[in-house]
């Protein structure tokens, strides 16, 4: 039995979970999220808890059991607390400015790079080198943060570029002079 999949998910106050066949929808104070559960996995609602079960010990059922439980738990956390990911811009002359709901990044290119926030995601700027990506969908927050980081990844010689908050960039020694 899956150690993660067999754990019940407690539903906090103010959160409403609806199960309609394979469709699970979670509604809370921050918004609403929906999930379609893969075929062999069954989701039940019992006494303010969500239970995820699998019918057999087939390989696909075992692999989807813990995943489904985690996805539903992440949705419940998302609609109550939300998710956020921090990014830092490191480099001389590198900076970010907020233009409405989008960001304008100056990263040493010949032009400023404009990043628009997708629906459900808020981009905020602190100072001129810190970005916070926030939203209720954990996967969407991570994807937007990864796409922003992809614009200018940190390089190993000087460490310039966009990195996650707290990310350690492994540095290399440069050329040695004679």
UniProtKB/TrEMBL annotation:
Gene3D superfamilies: Ribosomal protein L6, alpha-beta domain (3.90.930.12). GO terms for biological process: cytoplasmic translation. GO terms for cellular component: cytosolic large ribosomal subunit. SUPFAM superfamilies: Ribosomal protein L6. Residues 11-82, 90-164 form the Large ribosomal subunit protein uL6 alpha-beta domain. This is Large ribosomal subunit protein uL6. It comes from Agromyces cerinus subsp. cerinus. This protein binds to the 23S rRNA, and is important in its secondary structure. It is located near the subunit interface in the base of the L7/L12 stalk, and near the tRNA binding site of the peptidyltransferase center. GO terms for molecular function: rRNA binding; structural constituent of ribosome. Keywords: Ribonucleoprotein, Ribosomal protein, RNA-binding, rRNA-binding. Part of the 50S ribosomal subunit. Belongs to the universal ribosomal protein uL6 family.
């Amino acid at each position: 039995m899956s150690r993660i999949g067999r754990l019940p998910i407690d539903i906090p106050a103010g959160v409403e979970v609806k199960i309609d066949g394979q469709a699970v929808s979670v509604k809370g104070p921050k918004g609403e999220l929906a999930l379609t559960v893969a075929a062999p996995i069954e989701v039940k609602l019992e006494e303010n808890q969500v239970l995820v079960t699998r019918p057999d010990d087939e390989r696909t059922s075992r692999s989807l059991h813990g995943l489904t439980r985690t996805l539903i738990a992440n949705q419940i956390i998302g609609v109550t607390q939300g998710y956020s990911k921090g990014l830092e811009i490191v480099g001389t002359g590198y900076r970010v400015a907020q233009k409405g709901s989008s960001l304008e990044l100056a990263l040493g290119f010949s032009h400023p790079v404009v990043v628009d926030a997708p629906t459900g995601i808020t981009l905020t700027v602190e100072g001129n080198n810190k970005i916070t990506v926030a939203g209720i969908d954990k996967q969407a927050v991570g994807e937007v943060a990864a796409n922003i980081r992809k614009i200018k990844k940190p390089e190993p010689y000087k460490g310039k570029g966009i990195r996650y908050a707290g990310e350690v960039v492994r540095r290399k020694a440069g050329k040695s002079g004679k």
